[in-house]
Amino acid sequence: MAKTPFPKEQMHRIAYTELSEAQVKAALRSLHERLVAHVNADRAGAPAADLFTPDARIELGDAVQRLDGAGGAQSLSIERAPDGHTATLHARHTIRSESRLLPDCTEARMAIAQGCGVVRSSEVRLLRIDAVKTQEGWKVRRLAAVDSDAIEGVAA
Question: Is residue 2 part of a domain?
Answer without folding.
Answer: no
